[in-house]
Amino acid sequence: MMRRRTATLSCAALTLALGATACGGPVAAGGGQKELGGQTLTVAGVWSGAEQKNFQKVLDAFTEKTGAKTQFVSTGDNVSTVVGSKIEGGNAPDVVMVPQVGVLQQFAKNNWLKPLSDTTRKSVDANYATVWKSYGTVDGSLYGLYFKAAHKSTVWYSPAAFEQAGVKPPKTYEEMLTTGQAVSDSGLPAFAVAGEDGWTLTDWFENIYLSQAGPTMYDRLARHEVKWTDPTVVKALTTLGKLLSDKKLIAGGQKGALGTDFPGSVEKVFGPDPEAGMVYEGDFVAGIAKDQFGKKIGEEAAFFPFPAVTGGQAPVVSGGDAAVVLKDGKNQKAAMAFLEYLSTPEAAAVWAKAGGFLSPNKKLDLASYGDDTLRETAKSLINAGDSVRFDMSDQAPAAFGGTKGTGEWKLLQDFLRDPSNPAGTAAQLETAAAKAYRN
């Protein structure tokens, strides 16, 4: 999605990443002299646009290294439905890039997946924090390799808006609200909130909840070992509701937020006619700010870490896409080789150089990233180690945490519309969660 200065790779590094001919002429796709020549690997994932284009560079690198041709199939947001239909129709992809832990677990319990190879497991043990291995493991078997990560504890702001308001990036959640008031007083609403996309509201809740309740309670709620009616949930909703109910802080108020999708929220801060000073979302905000609106990352668009709520620690919530191998895929050898490749820092470097990407692979040289802001974000994610917590809604069954117009997405949109009854919203969330986890 983004990036300023382009990182360079040495000929030796390119040779490792792309094969022996990397520094000479290009290798024809599917070259028969390579190990997997003649095979075609089909990879399915949610990506489109710039993300799909950049992932294609990784696929092309794999082709040059192995000779396997590749084909990418975009699933849209309903990964489980699309993949299930393809399996039933005898047209299963070989590899799926799964964006939700809950969906990965569903695939494993449906007996759709093959455990990853010893080579991949050894790479994960050597190159990843333990938490990433645990999120890819179901019933003791490693099925998912987390290739692409997101840092979802970043608040993006306009330095010009902060300068006009005479404020600096806040250190606590309470300071963030005070800063927002100052930005609003200077003539620009504080936050653009993408309420039309329910997943952004789950991210708001998760950061607040992780900071207030702590990682142990976060893990228990993610597994539905505590009910959503727990006082910690009501407390987090109350904290979030205080922000959402303040029309001075939210661009367009609740109605305006509910009519704003995620790209639109970024445009409200970094577009040609700014309507807000800040937008909370993950590191991928920078890609839109740079690619669509020409902002210089670090100068015209900057971020501060999502600040700690009183009494808690600053949260580090992440998301990510895990590569899995389907049992019904027709090219098992190529699929396993592809995941072995994805587990290396060389593969991560290809997309890191292209931009719009963070890797949980701690062996990836930070110099591979194209600008200082990305390097800072990546370093924060890696340094968090096992204190990183995966997006809670992505760990839930899709019916609760990952479906438009239902479950957590819809109920938090309803809460944005009227944040006056946190306990009532918690009760509704529990009803929906209980049904989804039971099924």
TrEMBL record:
**Signal sequence region:** 1-22
Q: Which family does it belong to?
A: Belongs to the bacterial solute-binding protein 1 family.
Q: Mind telling me what this protein is named?
A: Sugar ABC transporter substrate-binding protein
Which species is listed as the source? Answer: Streptomyces purpureus
Q: Does the keyword DNA repair apply?
A: no
- Name the PROSITE patterns for this protein: PROKAR_LIPOPROTEIN (PS51257)
Q: Which Pfam families match?
A: SBP_bac_1 (PF01547)
Check the record and name the InterPro entries matching this protein.
Bact_solute-bd_prot1, SBP
Which keywords belong to this entry? Answer: Signal, Transport
